[in-house]
């Protein structure tokens, strides 16, 4: 018996290949794959607006005659922050939250197109930012809840990949419309987002609802039907349903398609459980920590202020700055594919720790090179090339781990009843941290030099590595219902995962 258990453990610990999983369970996994792709299309909208704003801000500054502080606020506004995303997802469901987010983005984009002054533009940007905060949370949350355990990391990394694709399209759009007059160029750049937001809003209505949300509503029959479509086998679907029902407090022997779920003050009970239960506190700290460190290591600064950083590095022509930014964006997008295929094969923890270690080295190297260039006051080709290499190395290491793994961890480690609210708080911390950095970066580098700013990011990345090593366990191959047990013991995270 012991030998059999050991054999089973060994099999469970073997790396999973998501491609083989899809071939072995083609019909069902193709359906789960299609759901993940469709809901991830919303992330293209988020990435596009982040990428395009880095170029559009230059033209908006010239056209509307705004100050550097107003440019910082403008760039930071796209981050968006909304503490009600989790409540909305629990109230109307995951699918309709995606639809709602797409509609809000559409309205915000329209307002930005017709804006004729800075305050009006900021209103449109604020509305779009609210929609983007929904997108940032709901896409990985939905995918996490519909994915089989064998391919959850693979599928949940899609939103990050699609964000990068959107950023790259945004860079390309900035470059394409840069030849238009200032008053037209930035409007075309921001207006492109209107069309895909309509298509995405229509497309997501074809998605099935999350089976875990359905169970929380007592709709067991509907949840069973969805699970049969997205699971690797009927037996797995039955096991998943039993686990979800147990987590929701529904008796295992209940066979009704619709059951009465006890009503309670959901928000109050969620926060009470989040902070008073030791395991949930560990989960909350892990989710908030990984979101804070993702942004405090400077990634949004690099993405949004790319042209300004390249100008400081010695690239002076506007088109050349946009082209350099596109090169970095291309590296970021391509390297995300490494994480996409490695999350279920290599695991979350090894990819994350190696990713952050590479980011630290790259940020230190970039800080040294920018400091040398700042002191020399000469634009030397070799120095510019080294800065480009360091910046590309930084986004490459970020993309193989820190980028996609943040959303994967945030949405998979919470229990079903806390998932939407917990993930929502992770997103709030993520967007708040990113917004603060975007609003203060220009003043920061003027106060401590551009090299000093990147040394600060390197220091934060080092603290992040220590935090991840101490707090985050390996979750590859575990069902969502097993997460509480996995994170219930702090010792398991300290080098024993």
Automatic annotation (TrEMBL):
SUPFAM superfamilies found in the cross-reference section: MFS general substrate transporter (SSF103473)
InterPro entries referenced in this protein's UniProt entry, alphabetically: MFS_dom, MFS_sugar_transport-like, MFS_trans_sf, Myo-inositol_Transporter, Sugar/inositol_transpt
Transmembrane in keyword set: yes
Entry GO CC: membrane
GO MF, one example: symporter activity
Major facilitator superfamily (MFS) profile domain location: 35-476
Keywords: Membrane, Sugar transport, Symport, Transmembrane, Transmembrane helix, Transport
Localization per Swiss-Prot or TrEMBL: Membrane
Membrane topology designation: Multi-pass membrane protein
Major subcellular location class: membrane
Listed transmembrane segments: 31-60, 96-114, 120-142, 154-172, 184-207, 322-339, 351-370, 382-400, 448-472
NCBIfam families: SP
Similarity field: Belongs to the major facilitator superfamily. Sugar transporter (TC 2.A.1.1) family.
Protein name: Major facilitator superfamily (MFS) profile domain-containing protein
């Amino acid at each position: 018996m012991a030998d059999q258990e050991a054999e089973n453990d060994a099999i469970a610990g073997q790396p999973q290949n998501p491609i083989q999983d899809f071939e072995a369970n083609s019909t069902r996994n193709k359906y789960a794959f299609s759901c993940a792709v469709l809901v991830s299309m919303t992330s293209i909208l988020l990435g596009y607006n982040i990428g395009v704003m880095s170029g559009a801000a230059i033209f908006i500054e010239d056209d509307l005659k705004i100050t550097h502080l107003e440019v910082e606020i403008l760039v930071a506004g796209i981050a968006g922050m909304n503490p009600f995303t989790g409540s909305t997802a629990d109230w109307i469901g995951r699918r309709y939250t995606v639809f709602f987010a797409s509609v809000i983005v559409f309205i915000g984009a329209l307002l930005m197109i017709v804006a004729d002054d800075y305050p009006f533009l900021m209103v449109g940007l604020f509305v779009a930012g609210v929609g983007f905060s929904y997108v940032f949370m709901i896409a990985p949350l939905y995918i996490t809840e519909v994915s089989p355990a064998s391919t959850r990391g693979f599928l949940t990394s899609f939103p990050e990949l699609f964000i990068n694709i959107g950023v790259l399209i945004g860079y390309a759009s900035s470059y394409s419309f840069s030849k238009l007059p200032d008053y037209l160029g930035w409007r075309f750049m921001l207006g492109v987002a209107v069309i895909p937001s309509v298509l995405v809003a229509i497309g997501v209505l074809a998605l099935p609802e999350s089976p875990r949300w359905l169970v929380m509503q007592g709709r067991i029959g509907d949840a069973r039907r969805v699970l049969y479509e997205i699971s690797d086998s009927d037996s797995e679907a039955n096991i998943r349903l039993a686990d979800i029902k147990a987590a929701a407090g529904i008796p295992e022997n209940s066979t009704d398609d619709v059951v009465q779920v006890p009503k309670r003050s959901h928000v109050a009970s969620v926060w009470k459980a989040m902070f008073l239960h030791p395991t949930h506190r560990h989960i909350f700290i892990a989710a908030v920590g990984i979101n804070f460190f993702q942004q405090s290591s400077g990634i949004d600064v690099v993405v949004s202020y790319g042209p300004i950083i390249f100008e400081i590095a010695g690239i002076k022509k506007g088109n050349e700055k946009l082209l350099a930014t596109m090169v970095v964006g291309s590296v970021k997008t391509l390297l995300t594919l490494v994480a996409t295929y490695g999350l279920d094969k290599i695991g979350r923890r090894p990819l994350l720790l190696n990713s952050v270690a590479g980011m630290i080295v790259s940020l230190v190297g970039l800080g040294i090179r920018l400091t040398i260039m700042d002191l020399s006051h000469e634009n030397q080709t070799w120095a510019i090339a080294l800065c480009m290499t360091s910046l590309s190395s930084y986004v490459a290491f970020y993309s193989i781990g820190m980028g996609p793994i943040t959303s994967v961890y945030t949405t998979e480690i919470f229990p079903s009843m806390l998932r939407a609210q917990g993930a929502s708080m992770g997103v709030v911390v993520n967007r708040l941290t990113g917004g603060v950095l975007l609003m203060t970066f220009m003043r920061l580098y003027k106060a401590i030099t551009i090299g000093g700013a990147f040394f600060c990011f390197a220091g934060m990345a080092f603290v992040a590595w220590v935090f991840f090593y101490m707090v985050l366990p390996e979750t590859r191959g575990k069902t969502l219902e097993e997460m509480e047990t996995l994170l219930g013991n702090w010792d398991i995270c300290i080098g024993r995962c």
